[in-house]
Amino acid sequence: QVQVVESGGGLVQPGGSLRLTCTASGISIENQSMEWYRQAPGKQREWVGIIGTLGDTTYDDSVKGRFTISRDNTKNTVTLQMRMLEIDDTAVYYCRIRVLGVWGQGTQVIVSA
């Protein structure tokens, strides 16, 4: 069974940093593009960014320059490094295997003073 599990969420102050990890099982992510999404309270789920199989990345304008996606195929993980966090970054963050459409359960990030 193909699964992804997100971890690393928590409470952080504005301006702080947090690193989320997406761990896949049941499949090697080496040949998979991996995405991050987020869903803030009362809002629709929105796309954050993507990392391709060659490590190429694209980000939504709202996080560009603050968030970085990386991958470690040997560990079958994808990481979302978040810096200069803002209150509007508060959301549940999800990882997705793009082609297969497999979602994780999400990890909560709360940015608050």
Supply database-style keywords.
113 residues; mainly beta; four-stranded antiparallel beta sheet; 11 strands; globular
Outline of the structure:
The protein is an all-beta fold. Helix content is 0%, strand content 50%.
Q: Can you describe this structure?
A:
This protein has strands at 3-7, 10-12, 18-25, 34-39, 46-51, 57-59, 67-72, 77-82, 91-97, 102-103, 107-111. The protein is an all-beta fold and 113 residues long. The strands form two sheets. Strands 2, 4, 5, 6, 9, 10 and 11 form a seven-stranded mixed β-sheet that branches. It is globular, with a radius of gyration of 13 Å.
- Helix segment tally: 0
Number of DSSP-assigned strands:
11
Helix/strand/pairing category: mainly beta
Shape: globular
The N- to C-terminal Cα distance equals 40 Å
Catalogue the unreliable spans: none
Helix-strand pattern: EEEEEEEEEEE
Radius of gyration from the alpha-carbon trace, in angstroms: 13 Å
Main sheet characteristics: 7 strands, mixed
Share in helix: under 10%
Mean pLDDT reading? 97
The percent range for strand residues is over 45%
